[in-house]
Automatic annotation (TrEMBL):
UniProt superkingdom: Bacteria
PROSITE patterns, sorted: ABC_TRANSPORTER_2
GO molecular function: ATP binding
Matching Pfam families: ABC_tran
SUPFAM superfamilies, alphabetized: P-loop containing nucleoside triphosphate hydrolases
Record family assignment: Belongs to the ABC transporter superfamily.
Keywords: Amino-acid transport, ATP-binding, Nucleotide-binding, Transport
UniProt-recorded name of the protein: Urea ABC transporter ATP-binding subunit UrtE
Amino acid sequence: MLAVQQLEAGYGESVILRQVTLQVRPGQVVCLLGRNGVGKTTLMKSIMGVLKARKGTVTYKGADLTKRAPGERAKKGIGYVPQGREIFPQLTVFENVLLGLEACKEKKRAIPESAIAKFPVLPSMYDRRGGDLSGGQQQQLAFARALASEPELLLLDEPCEGIQPSIVDDIRDVIRSIKAGGETAILLAEQSLEFVKSVGDYFYILEKGSIAWEGGLSDLNDEVIRHYLTV
């Protein structure tokens, strides 16, 4: 479904990603691991088109998206929950979710029930401003906004960062339910090893902007964790 080949990207004169190659198959939950500052968010931004690739390609369902704008990628079926959530603080919760419909391939006026059903607390907050919500509530809102377009690929960048344990559990349940449905693949960048091991099918570890290791859950042993992830 998603194929990243020899991707290079960075900011200004700095090169952050070097020859990154990975893939996500339909229905898979693929997890991106690595210490702080290794390029996980840069990779997510590059896949979404927020940051332009300097070299390499990003292919989605056989189509080369490397030079496509973020909006075009969204309409192809890629949803994105960025690090820091990036909800619109002055808009209401309802308006924030409604904006997710802009990424639909076909014009839709109604928010899909499936996007809201996973976060049943949100409808009771529809009239509140997004900026008035707690961090955990904002994360649920960002998640629902991305799901409103019913994407076939969902990019999740540090969805558990700074979130209370109860909402982390809710997000885990949502990812598992999406995985069980088999219609949406997920690329998840996350620091919590316990969390990714509870939801992931396949794992990549970034180190100094390059893929240093990849493998399945059974391969992610103590030696790998100690070598690449222990601070």
